[in-house]
Amino acid sequence: MKNAFAIGAGVAAGVVVAGWLWRDEIAQGASDAVEAVNPVNNDNIFARGFNAVNRALFGWSEADTLGSKIYDWSH
Predict the structure, then answer these.
(1) Across residues 39-48, what is the average pLDDT?
(2) Which domain does 73 fall in, by range?
(3) Concatenated DSSP letters of 14-67
């Protein structure tokens, strides 16, 4: 039982040290992930995917986006 505790404590300490050493990279990755799903961002992952599919299927140009099409359809 003591060996299992020592191994667990060693692994936990290793994770803490690795997190400390790579904290800037982890923070940048988290920031990029949040920005990719941010609904206010016009270039989020959902808009890019929707626009790419419609360019492939319907021949939309680069200027045609979901937002511009919604505006056109509603006015």
Answers:
(1) 80
(2) 41-75
(3) HHHHHHHHTHHHHHHHHHHHHHHH-TT-TT-HHHHHHHHHHHHHH---TT--HH
Across the chain, which distance is largest between two alpha carbons, in Å?
Answer: 72
Same domain, 47 and 27: no
Question: Do both 45 and 28 map to the same domain?
Answer: no
pLDDT band at 75 (very low <50, low <70, confident <90, very high): confident
CA–CA separation, 26 and 24 (whole Å): 5
Q: Do both 14 and 2 map to the same domain?
A: yes
pLDDT at 16 over 70: yes
